[in-house]
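Milestone M4 deliverable, item 7.
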Amino acid sequence: MKILTVSTLYPNAAQPSHGVFVENRIDFFRRRTKADVKVIAPVPWFPFSAPAFGRYARFAAAPGRETRRGIEVRHPRYAIPPKIGMT
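Output delivered:
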């Protein structure tokens, strides 16, 4: 069985505690069913990763692709103006 999950609430190397509950559920399901699970977890696009940019810098630091708990995770970027769509 193959499962594709799409969620903006999913951890990444730059934000390891973001949406951990989603990661836990997906990992539990994967181990229980032996399914081939892949995750698409979009992150907002931001051009600078310098700490001076605060939490937005973490978005820039997120990798485009990583493997967490044996699950392939991709982090495509999407455009969002700061202070409008995120509070």
